[in-house]
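Good day; I would like, with your permission, to put a structural problem before you. A protein sequence and the structure tokens that stand for its backbone fold form the material at issue. Thank you for your consideration; the sequence and its tokens are set out here:
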Amino acid sequence: MHVDLRLERHQLVLKNEVTEGFGRVETWIVSIAALALVLLRAIDFLWTLPILALGIGRS
């Protein structure tokens, strides 16, 4: 019984790490895309600040 609980806990920890990893990658992609749009002058820099703040907060 005790071994089953440890195994289940380990699986949940691994699952959590994987989902957080994908969230970080997704945030970095969105941040890079926002900076690319700023460099292309498609949007103003002020519009990207919340996106960049989210990226910094997630990392």
The chain has one domain: 1-58. The mean pLDDT is 77. Residues 7 and 18 are 17 Å apart (CA to CA). Residues 1-58 form one domain.
